[in-house]
Amino acid sequence: MGQALREARKAYAAGEVPVGAVLVREGRIIARAWNQVETLKDATAHAEMLALTAAQVSLGDWRLEKCTLYVTKEPCPMCAGAIVHCRPERVVFGCADPKGGAAGGWINLLESNPPLNHRCDITSGVLGEECLGLLQSFFREARGKKKPELGGE
Fold first, then answer.
1. DSSP letter at 150?
2. Residue 149 backbone phi and psi in degrees, to 5
């Protein structure tokens, strides 16, 4: 998770929502990514999506069996859908997203959805406070930048 946090800090520095992801297979990182929605002008450029694509290229296969995805924030429904289709064994995330998370926060597409073709084991809360703190800091700064200047004309 420490490596995923490193990726999240890259996103923060680039003005992106600070989420980072890494994929690990047999103890080795095979892919890493950070949110690049604004950078790439692509609503699908979430850290998880970019990491999944990079891992598939690295392995030469779309099936990410025997892999673990580490991500700093609970995946959204879009990312959870892609995760299910790529078939990693496990997803480990830092902080929950009760309003929009799809790994148990709002809904659970990863573990207990019978119509889907795959299920992932989930571990949540790994370095959760640090992951949440980074997100809170980012959004606090973003709100501060939107406040109008005080003073006269």
1. P
2. -65, 140
The DSSP element (H or E) to which 28 belongs, if any, is strand 28-34
Q: How far is residue 102's CA from residue 43's CA, in Å, rounded to a whole number?
A: 17
Q: At 106, give phi and psi (nearest 5°).
A: -100, -50
Q: How does pLDDT run across 46-105, given as a tens digit for each residue?
A: 999 999 999 999 999 999 999 999 999 999 999 999 999 999 999 999 999 999 999 999
The rounded distance, in Å, linking the Cα atoms of 22 and 2 is 10
First to last CA, the chain: 49
Contact 69, 92 (CB under 8 A): yes
Judge whether 5 and 23 are in contact, CB under 8 Å.
no
Active site residue 48: yes
For tokens 């879009």, name the residue: 78
Listed residue (7, 11, 18, 4) closest to 91, CA to CA: 4
- Listing DSSP states for 39-91 in one string gives HHT-TT--HHHHHHHHHHHHHTSS--TTEEEEEEEPPPHHHHHHHHHH--SEE
Q: Which residue among the candidates 38, 48, 74, 149 is catalytic per the annotation?
A: 48
